[in-house]
Design goal:
Blueprint: H1 3-18, H2 26-42, H3 47-74, E1 92-99, E2 103-108, E3 111-117, E4 128-135, E5 140-145
Parallel strand pairs: 3-5
Antiparallel strand pairs: 1-2, 1-4, 2-3, 4-5
């Protein structure tokens, strides 16, 4: 066992500790590659072999990370918080509270919105509603009772 074992161990530890700053787990896989390479160094492989093993493991882990990352993005909802209420059109929600004769509170993605409905008398708390439009003048969503 030569000093390469300790070098790979330090590199792997630094990369894995650096992952505490980031949140994508990219450096974690590279750190694991360095730690596995340090194990290869224990068995007496030359430094050239260790570098090749590290490159191969890093390449495979990067491909794995990109595959998982793109799969996660594909399954993410289309809604993003800063896109505005106009992009909520077509979504369903439930009536959370009724504010007099003019407004209804609904919750969409953990955010409370004020909404209006043409048939306010028929709405009750807990009813399923569908967002059909956004009235920017009144800053309210326009909903209708979902009949499904």
């Amino acid at each position: 066992m030569d000093n390469w074992f300790y070098i790979w161990l330090i590199i792997g530890s630094i990369l894995m500790l650096s992952e505490l700053i980031g949140t994508d787990f990219f450096l974690l896989f590279l750190g694991l590659s360095a730690l596995v390479t340090s194990i290869v160094g224990v068995f007496g492989a030359s430094w050239q072999v260790q570098v090749i093993v590290f490159c191969i493991l890093s390449f495979c882990s990067i491909i794995f990370w990109f595959y998982r990352h793109s799969k996660h993005k594909a399954n993410a909802p289309a809604y993003e918080p800063n896109m505005g209420p106009k992009n909520l059109v077509g979504r369903s929600s439930k009536v959370d509270a009724i504010e007099g004769d003019t407004a209804v509170k609904i919750i969409v993605n953990d955010t409370v919105y004020l909404a209006t409905c043409k048939d306010m008398a028929s709405l009750q708390v807990g009813d399923q509603v569908r967002i059909v439009d956004f009235d920017s003048a009144k800053d309210r969503l326009i909903i209708e009772k979902d009949t499904k």
